[in-house]
Specification:
By secondary structure, this protein is of the alpha+beta class. It has one domain. 19% of the residues lie in helices and 34% in strands. It is built from five helices and 14 strands. Strands 1-4-9-7 form a four-stranded mixed sheet. Strands 2-11-10-3 form a four-stranded antiparallel sheet, with helices on one face. The longest helix is centred in the N-terminal third of the chain and has 18 residues. This is Vancomycin resistance protein VanW.
């Protein structure tokens, strides 16, 4: 989970909750209530139907390692194990969900509050420039995977928050930085809208070492997608470092030749780096 809403840069005026920290819980409560109201009376039709059988056509599949030694904090090993437990509680509420035409998938609408009374435990979350423990921590890994899957499908990402700082150096990164999805119950959410006449399905499962995910469809699609990174690097700004890149998506026709139909800009990322970049890193 990621609590911090966004890195605003040196010239931005700090939010009121920074100057008056006692306001922060009230602001969180207010935003949570507004989001619950949106779920009930908003214009969206949320995806709520779960089907155990997989739809026939695989759109895209991806997996990520469950455990990574990323923090020097002595609690990191326990956080990694607890993250897996949190995954095991969230995944049954997400796996098999159908996203029918005109429906919106909401991560938190399906998972619900990640609290101790529901069995969630302390995992690592990113907040205000550092890693710390928090109940339900680690669920961002599922959000990251779902967002990456969605980028390789016709689903539209209608709500998504980027992580607001880069806490650790890359370790075997195989997908571009800045394609994750921060989560904080319930208003920092991931929403995926289905604008097509097809039905899509989320499949998620755990193995001993991996978090696995697929997006499936009720029929074959005419296109595939490729995500590319451009203009990536690190830049020193005063006494700190910043990381930047651009994320683009290519739409490619299936079949012989694989013609690129369009190349579309998705995101521009610039975040504060909480470590010293290595000289061999880009930039």
């Amino acid at each position: 989970m990621a609590v911090e809403a966004g890195f605003r840069g040196p010239a931005a005026r700090p939010p009121l909750t920074t100057r008056y920290p006692w306001l922060y819980p009230l602001r969180v409560w207010q935003r949570q209530m507004l989001r619950k109201l949106r779920w009930r009376i908003g214009p969206e039709r949320f995806a709520l139907t779960r089907q155990p059988e997989s739809l026939p056509s695989k759109v895209y599949r991806h997996q990520s390692k469950l455990r990574r030694a990323v923090s020097a904090d002595p609690r990191d090993a326990a956080w990694q194990d607890n993250k897996v437990r949190n995954h095991s509680l969230a995944i049954p509420r997400l796996d098999g969900i159908l996203i029918r035409p005109g429906e919106t998938f909401s991560f938190w609408r399906l998972v619900g509050p990640p609290v101790a009374r529901r069995g969630f435990v302390e995992g690592m979350e990113l907040s205000r420039g550092r890693a710390r423990g928090g109940i339900g921590g680690g669920l961002c890994q599922i959000g990251n995977l779902l967002h990456w899957l969605a980028l390789h499908s016709p689903l539209e990402v209608t709500q998504r928050a980027n992580h607001s700082f880069d806490p650790f150096p890359d370790q075997g990164r195989i997908i571009p930085y800045g394609t994750g999805a921060a989560l904080f119950y319930n208003y920092v959410d991931l929403w995926l809208f289905n604008p097509t006449d097809r039905t899509f399905q989320i499949r998620l499962w755990l193995t001993e070492t991996l978090l696995n995910g697929e997006i499936r469809c009720d029929g074959r699609l005419p296109h595939r997608y490729r995500i590319v990174e451009r203009n990536a690097g690190f830049e020193q700004a005063g006494d700190r470092w910043e990381r930047f890149n651009e994320i683009w998506r290519e739409t490619i026709a299936k079949g012989e030749g694989g013609t690129t139909i369009s190349t579309d800009f998705l995101y521009a990322n610039r975040v504060r780096v909480m470590y010293q970049p290595r000289s061999e890193e880009p930039g």
